[in-house]
Write a structure and sequence with these properties.
binds zinc ion, Metallo-beta-lactamase domain-containing protein, metal-binding, 10 helices, single chain, 322 residues, alpha/beta
Length: 322
């Protein structure tokens, strides 16, 4: 009798502990402001009027999970689709892919680089790779001048082995930090970072401030594609502001947040997810808050988190362009 009483107590304690942990992880947290007061120009400079840019999106895979796992305060009963997306950007001077999702050998790469826990945590359904998509539309690697990646976590760098002759544009700091961290950090797959055949190109922020960002890079000198530093999620993450010929302006923010709803509410990721994926959690919080302010100050701007399926699908799917 006494034994049964003790095991009932133990079971109760376990239920309470699990309940407490879930409550702690998913409890809505709102980022109220930056750690230090900032004097910020939130409004972006006027968009260029003469852009000839065409833009198109594609998804190389996805996974579905309750929104409550994507950001704190998310709905437990709302299904969120996370996508491994990429964007084909055509500028009169060059065509490039921004992000790019997962590649042809992802099943092997996943199995070889992840332990059991991470393999299940980051389970995905693969659809069509960028390489396959281009081929299906009569294009090939040679039609892509370069690939720009916001950062080098596995789910972004996974496009690299499929485009070995195509320059990969990142910040130098990002590549150096990724190579260093890849030894222990499961978010990086070392094999994507050390292949001597990969041609790296480094983006330097040699231009002046852009809105609240203290430096930038006007990639074609015509203000149609502006790269801005967004370190936080990784050591050298960056974002891209792209103005299309249609006049629409997009802000590709990589993984600073996984969800536009989270940015609207300034809600961060769950603590356990932040600890796994973010390089500098307080810095990411500042940026999520900043994105909320940018969103309010630039109502015509479309903020695009790389993995938010609901946002990505609002852009024309390849081979259709905006
Ligand atoms: Zn990612």
């Amino acid at each position: 009798m006494k034994k049964r009483y003790i095991s009932a107590l133990a079971a109760g304690a376990i239920v309470l502990a699990i309940g407490g942990m879930i409550t702690y992880q998913t409890w809505p947290r709102t980022i109220e402001g930056p750690r230090e007061p900032m004097e910020l120009t939130l409004e972006f400079p006027a968009a260029p009027q003469n852009s000839e840019i065409r833009i198109s999106q594609f998804s190389t895979g996805y996974n579905i999970s309750p929104e409550a796992l994507i950001y704190t305060g998310g709905n437990f009963f709302e299904q969120h689709q996370s996508v491994y997306s990429g964007f084909v950007v055509e500028h009169p001077r060059s065509t490039f892919i921004l992000e790019g999702g997962i590649g042809t050998n992802i099943a092997r790469e996943h199995a070889e680089n992840f332990n059991f826990f991470y393999e299940n945590l980051f389970a995905y359904t693969a659809t069509e790779t960028a390489k396959e998509l281009l081929a299906a539309n009569g294009k090939s690697q040679s039609d892509v001048d370069f690939i720009a990646l916001t950062h080098l976590h596995w789910d972004h760098a996974a496009i690299i082995p499929d485009f070995l002759d195509t320059p990969i544009l990142v910040t130098e700091n990002e590549l150096n930090a990724a190579r260093e961290e890849a030894v222990e950090n499961q978010s990086y797959f070392q094999e994507y970072l050390i292949n001597p055949e990969t041609e790296w190109e480094f983006l330097e922020f040699t231009d002046g401030p852009y809105g609240p960002f203290d430096k930038s890079k006007d990639m074609f000198g015509d203000r149609t594609v502006i790269a801005v530093p967004m370190a936080g999620h990784t050591a050298g993450s960056m974002g891209f502001v792209v103005t299309a010929a249609s006049g629409k302006r997009y802000f590709f923010i990589g993984d600073t947040s996984w969800s536009i709803e989270a940015i609207k509410k300034a809600h961060p990721r769950l603590p356990f997810a932040e600890n796994i994926v973010d390089h500098d959690v307080p810095m990411v919080h500042d940026q999520v808050w900043l994105l909320q302010q940018i969103m309010k100050a630039n109502p015509d701007l479309m903020i695009v988190p790389t993995h938010d399926g609901n946002v990505v699908k609002q852009i024309s799917a390849y081979p259709a362009f905006e």
